[in-house]
Amino acid sequence: MITAVYPGTFDPITNGHSDLVRRASDLFDHVILAIAKNSGKNPAFDLDQRKSLVERVLNGVHNVEIRVFDNLLVDFVQECNANVILRGLRAVSDFEYEFQLAGMNRRLAPEIETLFLTPAEQFAFISSGLVREIASLGGDVTEFVHPDVQAALSKRFS
């Protein structure tokens, strides 16, 4: 059985994230979407809000589990008995950073593989940071996020 962990802050979850999870659920036996506490990023939504939004967005996607973590990623992956870290690559600019992370994770836990998926073309430019910025300035983010996320962003930045 192959279990993949897809980590991130998901602040908020975007259509790009959910596309990647849906595709991963067809590739792996079990997918764990792992929401990082990551308090250093000063998130727009607290951990409980992010988890709630992720659960609503991914409701009905088979073989996906939503968990939160606040420790070293490779330790979390080992706790989950997973074999794969799944990361998304939107652009070449993401590659250098992700390549460094993958190398460090391999050094810390050589039994865990890192796999990269690229988003569907229509989601390649979407990032949580851009979505938050647009929403905070009163812009329309409906094509970038699930309606529940859009409503939460509107409430957060109203």
TrEMBL record:
Name of a matching Pfam family: CTP_transf_like
Enzyme class: transferase
Pathway terms, separated by semicolons: Cofactor biosynthesis; coenzyme A biosynthesis; CoA from (R)-pantothenate: step 4/5
Record-listed E.C. numbers: 2.7.7.3
The UniProt record lists the keyword Zinc: no
Protein family: Belongs to the bacterial CoaD family.
Any one GO CC term of the record: cytoplasm
Gene that this polypeptide is encoded by: coaD
Classification via CDD domains: PPAT
Cofactor(s) named in the record: Mg(2+)
Top-level lineage group: Bacteria
UniProt keyword Phosphoprotein present: no
Organism: Candidatus Thiodiazotropha endolucinida
Stated name of the protein: Phosphopantetheine adenylyltransferase
Site (Transition state stabilizer) location in chain: 17
